[in-house]
UniProtKB/TrEMBL annotation, chains A, B:
Keywords: Kinase, Transferase
Start and end residues of each DhaK domain: 8-329
The keyword Transferase is annotated on this UniProt entry: yes
Protein name as annotated: Dihydroxyacetone kinase DhaK subunit
A GO CC term attached to the entry: cytosol
Length: 332, 332
């Protein structure tokens, strides 16, 4: 039995949204569709930025709605895609006749529903273009990048796309910046313990004590290797050796590094892990321009972490530096 | 076996500090004492705000060092007090001959070490005055408030004391504001699963599946009652019925509400819990001026949550509204 604070598991998403809206009144507001949340005080005449995804990944996805990131989000059930109607309503909520950029992760349900939303939007005179995050190196070989899933790299995609729109970029410029961001980004995850869907009540996969899973997905999708639990230093080496050569990141590259916990790993361990990652990256003469460490994209109460690295150019550097104010990312 | 990302458990605090300093270069910096971290760019001629406590409670304590909150922190081993020397060095790092306010939690080790640090400071010409947080209602009866422990209410005390110092308050004014903050604050915790000290490797207490512990402390200190695991609505009622009558908070009071996870409880459940707490507070005609929901003060990978309520007056309202910029609390 999983020890949870909830009422009816079938109602957890609606109750979570209700609590979220009450807490963050200064950042977000409800819309007519109760599975769509939008930012408050969206600046005039800008491209709308939307996203959407399953629940249980907090702060993703609703935690990245706010100033200079996403303008609206479509909220799905736990670990399952929002409906096409929710994506459409998110677009309608933020459309200012400048077009809407839908920046989301590569999962079959999301792909299907975003495509349907785009078709419906055309009929209503709204232009939606999309960027599909596929930063998870472990989910498919490099020559099949279109099959790779989106993981914590999505946050950097939202940061860049949101900043470009805030700068006044047009739809094509916003899409190009978000696409460049995700094309320059690689991630890998490690799992130390499983999670349990509230409605199921038992884990849908297993990680034995003393073992870990390299390359695990954000919903427990199988990784590349199950091995004995390593030290932080060894884990960092394994993660770096997957992420760095794939892009590949090279000497003198300037990068953003994001280490996210998967939920139940204490934050102090994330800093221990980042401490090792930073040393390894330095050894490779790659320059860390900015680092984010914390619970940025979780999987309920899974233990483990993800490593995400994004290569910067002059444009991306300016956009990553732009202030942001959301529940999940606040930056001066 | 607990599934952790670490190297040597005896080295976890030093490695965590190293990773923390590398990540938050814009907010904090090292000092000569490797167990003391200070804020960057502390404004001139202000009262210094320091705190300190055991590790494993992230963002507490080092996550609240930064603009308009704490100026320096003394870092202890996991769940154990910093040394007297660390408290003293924290004071020395921020002393500007305006005095230093040490705002910390009521635990015997911290009390002893802060008292020693104050004595040593006098000899060096530094004035330290202290406020001891004792917001945990469950830890002693109301007529023995001096025995109560400090829990998540400490964050509100740091917010208020830090803001008062930033406003230019003198030492006595800062101490008075912080004391008023904690005197107006009450908290209670619930535990759903235990945590394990990295060096011990096994939990030092037990919560059976299907059960929960009302009034549990931040280190698993025994609470008031062990009962079957309730729904979010019932848990909210139990927490409210402990916190509200103790102060007591009354009709038309304006309050801050802080719901913190203990580490491994998914954040979506905290919003579900807050959704119920908000309804109950409204029913009592108490006015929620501001709410914080998230992992603000954790206990490694414990499952559970704390509820903290602080009554506001005009002064506290202005101070709680002041911007802050720390790893754990960023507010415009």
């Amino acid at each position: 039995m999983v020890q949870r604070i909830l009422n009816d598991p079938d109602n957890i998403v609606d109750e979570m949204i209700s609590g979220f809206l009450k807490t963050h009144k200064d950042i977000v507001e409800a819309t007519e569709n109760n599975r769509v949340i939008k930012a408050k005080n969206i600046p005039k005449d800008k491209v709308g930025i939307i996203t959407g995804g399953g629940s249980g990944h907090k702060p993703a996805f609703i935690g990245y709605v706010g100033k200079n990131m996403c303008d609206a989000v479509a909220v799905g059930e736990v670990f399952s895609s929002p409906t096409a109607m929710a994506f459409l309503d998110a677009a309608k909520a933020v459309d200012q006749k400048k077009g809407v950029a839908c920046l989301y992760g590569n999962y079959s349900g999301d792909n299907m529903n975003v495509k349907m939303a785009i078709k419906m939007a055309i009929k209503q005179g709204i232009t939606i273009k999309s960027v599909i995050a596929n930063d998870d190196v472990a989910s498919a070989p490099k020559n099949q990048r279109e099959k790779r899933r989106g993981v914590a790299g999505e946050i950097l995609m939202w940061k860049i796309g949101g900043a470009k729109a805030a700068q006044g970029g047009n739809l094509d410029e916003v899409i190009a910046a978000a696409q460049k961001a995700i094309d320059s980004t690689r991630s890998v995850g490690i799992g130390l313990s499983p999670c349990t869907l509230p409605a199921a009540g038992h884990p849908n996969f297993e990680i034995k004590p003393g073992m870990m899973e390299m390359g695990i997905g954000h919903h427990g999708e199988p990784g590349m290797e199950i091995c004995s639990l390593k030290t932080a230093k060894e884990i960092a080496e394994k993660m770096i050796n997957i992420v760095i050569p794939d892009y590949p990141f090279k000497e003198q590259d300037e990068v953003v590094v994001l280490v996210s916990g998967l939920g139940a790993t204490p934050v102090m361990e994330l800093y221990v892990l980042y401490n090792e990652i930073e040393k390894l990256i330095k050894t490779k003469n790659i320059i860390i321009y900015k680092a984010y460490v914390g619970n940025y994209f979780t999987s309920l109460e899974m233990k483990g972490a993800t490593l995400t690295i994004m290569k910067l150019d002059q444009e991306l550097k300016k956009l990553i530096d732009m202030p942001a104010y959301t529940m999940g990312l606040k930056q001066k």
